[in-house]
Amino acid sequence: MINIIEPRVPDENESIACHFQSSIPGSLICKAARLIGQDSTNEVNASICAECPAGRIYREIGCDSISPKIRIFSYHGGSDAEVRGLFCSKRGRETTFEYCKSCNIVVADTTRQIVNNARSLFERYEFYSAFKFLEKARKEMRDGDLEGVITSSIAIFESVMKSCHEKKDVPLPDAKQVTGLWKSTRKILELDKSGRPDEITNLLNVLFGVVSGLGRLRNELGDAHGKGESLPVVTEMMAELSLNTAATLATSVIRIYAELKEEKK
């Protein structure tokens, strides 16, 4: 079945990210494009990527196990693309975007939304190390490495806080564990001034408990420090909760960082 991609110009801040993309100076390359015939090319553009079903599955569903049979046709003034099939390496068969939306192998809708929102912010404000750990956590969730998800989740939040220090040219605190980073980030982003004193203090104290809990979760259930012979039981709920919590905290910190940056312009 041939699916003709209808190009659509994406919004300015809309992500068109895809695991098949690579770039060379002046061009965006699709690594999945089949070079068959003189009129075919592997050069692609944002309008095609925005509506490519393989890219949509990657962005909206959070799965990179899909390989498309895609051809891009170049002509004077533009290009067209068609997809002749989507192959799922997890299931070992052809699939569709609609089927992938209901696939029980991938994570829950809420987690996908949180991860996609975080990915968009990380790209927009250039928090690249956090983006790297987010992608790592997403793949670990897909592959069932739940201990790895917990470790990578906390690394996302730590990376955002460390990047905030670097972007504001503030040295990292001596205590570089997650709670120490949170205390310092709270100070440099002036979080105590972001609401009524009684309300914001209570909220920030609650969040300190959440941050501290994430650190303990990594120590007890993550794979960062090694384990003994008696391995802990890590469930999908625990892994998704750690990823959702860390990503939500990270996006909140970035939004506050962005607000302060705008105020000082």
Description:
The protein is an alpha+beta fold. It has nine helices and eight strands. It has helices at 46-51, 53-61, 97-101, 109-124, 128-143, 146-167, 178-188, 197-221, 236-263; strands at 3-4, 21-24, 27-30, 40-41, 43-44, 66-75, 78-88, 93-95. The strands form two sheets. Strands 1, 4, 6, 7 and 8 form a five-stranded antiparallel β-sheet that branches. The protein has a three-stranded antiparallel β-sheet with strand order 2-3-5. A hairpin with a 2-residue loop joins strand 6 (66-75) and strand 7. The relative contact order is 0.11. The model has no long low-confidence stretch (mean pLDDT 85).
Give the overall shape: globular
Mean pLDDT: 85
Q: Tell me the strand percentage band.
A: 5-15%
Structural class: alpha+beta
Q: Please count the beta strands (DSSP E, at least 2 residues each).
A: 8
Helical percent range? 40-55%
Give the end-to-end Cα distance, rounded to a whole number of Å. Answer: 53 Å
As an assembly, this protein is: single chain
Q: Please compute the radius of gyration using only Cα atoms.
A: 21 Å
Write the element-wise H/E pattern from the N-terminal end onward: EEEEEHHEEEHHHHHHH
Unreliable spans are: none
Q: Determine the number of helices (DSSP H or I, runs of at least 4 residues).
A: 9
Biggest sheet statistics? 5 strands, antiparallel
Short description:
Helix content is 52%, strand content 14%.
